[in-house]
Amino acid sequence: xxxxxxxxxxxxxxxVEFWRELTRRSADARELLALMADEPDxxxxxxxxxxxxxxxxxxxxxxxxxxxxxxxxRSDAILAIHAGAGGTEAQDWAAMLLxxxxxxxxxxxxxxxxxxxxxxxxxGIKRVAVSIQGPYAYGNxxxxxxxxxxxxxxxxxxxxxxxxxFALVEVWPDLGNDxxxxxxxxxxxxxxxxxxxxxxxxxxxxxxxxxxIHEPTGIVVTCQNERSQTQNREVAMKILRGRLYExxxxxxxxxxxxxxxxxxxxxxxxxIRSYVLHPYNMVKDLRTGYETGNTTAVLDGxxxxxxxxxxxxxxx
Length: 316
What we know:
eight-stranded mixed beta sheet, 41% helix, Double Stranded RNA Binding Domain, Alpha-Beta Plaits, alpha+beta, three-stranded antiparallel beta sheet
């Protein structure tokens, strides 16, 4: 508790110091601009123009930080991807999404750990769960929750026909020990099994993988990528706590929308974004309308414009 309080105090001091420094630099720029009104100097004016540009950029970044208004936006995140119906096509699409998020995290210097995965029979992945650790990881990635749709010429179709594939992305905050989530021991069924692998030395001889089933909600969490059963159980419990927290938050949002008289759709599988690679190139977010033709950049992790558009749409 004391460590958490000290961390929050340090973060608040950084915010205060940022605004003090921005205020000081703005005042200096105004004074210099007033002096230049009587005796203009081209070199000084050019330097002043650069400083004003830098101040505007920092102010814009600070404004963006205010979009992170949810209680756990600063937290690390757990991201899960599930291949939809369609066999190898959908499983390959799930693997492409995993690569996209790993690239995005890598570009930000975030730490990434794959905590659970199930490979497809021919290619791709059936499911994967990833821990992403970094400032505002959850605040950014909560914009990615929902169904992602891909349209392309299938590399697995000998007739080169166009296919549509779907994958579900789920995101939960890594709550650590900061939030109390009431989980009764009698509500959890625990199963252990051998971790899957490619064969040979990669297959665990002992039952270290863990599956948790939360009986009241039907939520199932698996973890098999840690070295011991104890570690896998701890990670699985962490994921379960995050999922139960998100479930409760979703219920509150639905009730709030109902009271406001808005349309409420309890289905979590609504499509949020389309990635079209044929007959044209376009990625479009169906919630905000933001789109780009640079599909290669997006699949290489250039997600920030989509994330910002979503966050701004939430405060309008």
